[in-house]
Design goal:
- The chain has about 725 residues and is of the alpha+beta class.
- The chain folds into four domains: about 200 residues, Four Helix Bundle (Hemerythrin (Met), subunit A) (Up-down Bundle); about 120 residues, 2-Layer Sandwich (Beta-Lactamase); about 150 residues, Four Helix Bundle (Hemerythrin (Met), subunit A) (Up-down Bundle); about 210 residues, 2-Layer Sandwich (Heat Shock Protein 90), CATH 3.30.565.
- It contains 22 helices and 13 strands.
- It has a six-stranded mixed sheet with strand order 8-9-10-12-11-13, with helices on one face. Strands 4-3-7-6-5 form a five-stranded antiparallel sheet.
- Strand 3 and strand 4 form a beta hairpin.
């Protein structure tokens, strides 16, 4: 048993000797509950009987009203207005009388005094049943005569004879039905009166038993009060002994958060030498933790004093479960510790022998060593997980592609370093640095994502966040790039670790490839170029999964044209950006595609073909939603870069050009896959660099196709071309 359990035991009484009182209280509660339940039950019955009595009285009135109405109808044949009014009243009275009569006989809901419905139970006493049967025998022919008269009116026939029959029956049965309804009312009143008498008898008996039970409780309470005082005194002495020996800081606080007069000796060692008794716990906390934490702790303790709140439910809300504090020492400095405060309710019986929350027991532990150990273990675990994640991702990446990625990464880092080192004399030049670095890191992220190297992708995305902040900062200076430099150094260091780890793994795939080459050198169109594109399938599937879509990639011709290495890398960057754009912006979610009567799995066609000896054509087409020109126009309005009247006049071709603007994106939020507005701008830069041509065609809800014409640049060519770059829609 822990020290906390010992302390809570001191505030618990031995309820065995209070068994008599507890049983008496339980009997008292049971008796009261039984009487109350019976009262409620009988009260509801009496209320229902009252409704029945009222409705029986209404039946008497309705029988008279029907007879009177029939006489009025007979007398007002020549007065259409009076006749119509009397006829409507007859129909209403007949319906209410028939409905209520059936309710008394069979039970059910009937219309009450107003628009409310009343529930009637079948009449079971003999007098009431006899009166209802007598009434029913008279009512059926009476009702039939009224119905025949009403049907004659509805059909426009001569109603004189039916009306005469109804009037005759009214005169014959009126007094008899009135007498029967009087008997029904009397029978219902008698039933209600008998229930009221029975209720008063039960209440009288319950009060007598409650008084006897209360006297019995008082007898036991007075007799055991002195024994309870002795137990409390013994508990106090035991508490004092425990406080002197426990290895935890213990003390009590009341509802005003005032520390009690007793505390454990260990408290002085944990919190330092000071006067605790009578001090405010709030003031004590504010001297060692922040004011915000102290205020939060005060609110938590107030919840502990609220008896309506269960202690177990708020245990996880403790703001001081582990807190770093600064405690003043004797030399005038501060000692940093990690303390753990735990709180438990302390109960005390009041004069009514009912346990109530009197104090909160505070336990303080110095957990500084445990915190240091946990931090060390977490750092070790994170390092191990990072290493394992790195190894796992490397094992799933083709060695040749990994070598190429590492080489491209270092080239990218060098270009970013050159941008950072380049002196900027104007504010626009400083801002252009962020844009140029943004392009480089966005291409790097795309290649990392295509190889499923998640660490690099996440690191690049964080750098994009930093660059976005720099790009939007109004007073950007060169010093603002220092944080980005640290991120770049960390990324370079991690890339070097990957390169070193790859070498230590033996590069067995590369070794096997080298042995194969020693025996046989394949032609330039062989496997070496083929595997360079295999990762695109995984890239598309990973993108689709992350965006909740189903996508099929059909690629052809990627390995049939041999290109210069850097030029091939630029082509790969173009393809990655176009595939990302097709998956994120083009292909719809499966449910949306199904609603549009499309296959739930979208399709992307990727084709690279030689169209002449000097040119090649790249086609990327998806069967998605196509370009949303209204969304592009709306984004242009919200960007604030152009006048509204100018945007209104733009054609679809002009709007199409916006997707290639730096920082322009129709994505609703920024994610790892979209929202930066850099992907299509990077594609355009590559095309412009080589004087290529982009043709875009789109049909809303059906497809979007990008056709890019580029020169063929091989390792032996000089890369100069004569065609001019252009965009066609």
């Amino acid at each position: 048993m822990t020290t906390g359990e010992h302390m809570s035991g001191l505030f618990n009484f031995d309820f065995g000797k209070y068994r008599g009182i507890l049983i008496s209280v339980a009997l008292f509660l049971l008796l009261d509950a039984s009487v109350l339940i019976f009262n409620f039950y009988v009260s509801y019955e009496i209320a229902d009987d009252a409704v029945g009595v009222n409705l029986a009285g209404r039946q008497r009135m309705l029988s008279q009203r029907m007879a009177k109405t029939l006489l009025i109808l007979d007398a007002s044949k020549d007065d259409p207005v009076a006749f119509k009014k009397a006829f409507d009243e007859l129909q209403l009275s007949k319906g209410l009388f028939d409905e209520t009569l059936n309710g008394f006989i069979n039970g059910g809901q009937v219309r009450g005094a107003g628009k409310d419905m009343a529930q009637l139970e079948p009449v079971t006493n003999r007098l009431g049943k006899d009166s209802l049967q007598n009434t029913l025998q008279l009512w059926l022919p009476y009702k039939k005569s009224i119905d025949i008269f009403s049907e004659s009116i509805a059909r426009g026939e001569d109603y004189s004879n039916p009306l005469a029959v109804a009037v005759a029956l009214a005169r014959t049965h009126n007094l008899t039905m009135l007498s029967a309804m009087n008997d029904l009312t009397v029978s219902l009143e008698q039933v209600a009166a008998s229930k009221a008498i029975r209720l008063r008898g039960i209440q009288t008996l319950g009060i007598c038993l409650a008084i006897i039970n209360f006297l019995f409780i008082m007898f036991h309470f007075v007799r055991q009060l002195r024994d309870s005082d002795k137990v409390i005194e013994r508990a106090r002495r035991e508490t004092t002994e425990i406080l002197e020996t426990v290895n935890e800081g213990l003390f009590l606080i009341d509802k005003q958060l005032i520390i009690g007069g007793q505390h454990s000796a260990k408290l002085v060692e944990v919190l330092g030498t000071q006067q605790f008794a009578g001090q405010s716990f709030q003031v004590l906390l504010e001297s060692i933790v922040s004011a915000k934490d102290a205020e939060t702790a005060r609110g938590f303790i107030e919840l502990l004093f609220d008896p309506k709140i269960k202690e177990k439910l708020i245990g996880d809300l403790n703001p001081l479960n582990s807190v770093e504090v600064n405690i003043a020492n004797q030399s005038g400095g501060f000692l940093t510790k990690h303390l753990q405060f735990s709180f438990a309710r302390a109960y005390q019986k009041n004069e009514d022998d009912v346990a109530e929350i009197s104090h909160v027991l505070v336990t303080v532990l110095d957990v500084s060593e445990q915190v240091k150990l946990v931090r060390a273990l977490n750092e070790s675990r994170k390092h191990n997980e990072s290493q394992l994640e790195m190894i796992t991702s490397l094992l799933h990446t083709h060695p040749g592609l990994l070598r190429e990625f590492i080489a491209n990464s270092f080239n990218c880092f060098n270009r970013i370093n050159n941008v950072l080192r380049q002196p900027a004399k104007t504010s626009q030049a400083v801002r252009d640095k962020a844009v140029n670095i943004f392009r480089e890191i966005h291409n790097f992220k795309g290649e990392a994502a295509s190889l499923k190297l998640e660490f690099f992708e996440i690191a690049a995305h964080k750098m994009e966040d930093t660059l976005a902040e720099l790009r939007d900062k109004p007073d950007l200076t060169g010093n603002d790039y220092l944080g980005l430099t640290v991120q770049l150094e960390n990324l370079i260091s991690y890339t070097q670790q990957v390169e070193h780890l790859t070498e230590r793994l033996g590069q067995f795939a590369i070794v096997s490839s080298n042995k194969f080459k020693a025996a046989y050198t394949p032609p330039s169109t062989g496997n070496k170029r083929e595997h360079a594109w295999d990762h695109l399938q995984d890239f598309v599937q990973n993108l689709a999964l992350r965006n909740g879509k189903l996508v099929k990639l059909v690629a052809s011709g990627l390995s049939e044209i041999e290109l210069e290495a850097n030029y091939g890398q630029q082509l790969k960057e173009i393809i990655i950006q176009l595939l990302r754009n097709a998956v994120v912006h083009g292909i719809e979610a499966p449910n949306d595609r199904e609603m549009s009567e499309k296959n739930m799995e979208g399709r992307i066609d990727l084709r690279l073909a030689k169209i002449s000896t000097t040119e090649m054509e790249l086609t990327v087409m998806d069967d998605g939603a196509g370009l949303d020109y209204e969304a592009i126009r709306a984004k242009a309005f919200t960007s604030g870069k152009w006048p509204d009247d100018e945007i209104e006049s733009w054609t679809n071709k002009h709007l199409l050009g916006l997707i290639f603007h730096e920082g322009f994106s129709t994505a609703k939020e920024i994610s790892k896959d979209a929202g930066r507005g850099m992907g299509m701008e990077a594609v355009m830069n590559h095309v412009l660099e080589h004087r290529g041509k982009i043709t875009v065609s789109s049909r809303r809800g059906r497809h979007c196709r990008f056709v890019i014409t580029l020169p063929i640049i091989t390792a032996n060519s000089n890369g100069h071309v004569n065609n001019d770059s252009e965009i066609a829609a």
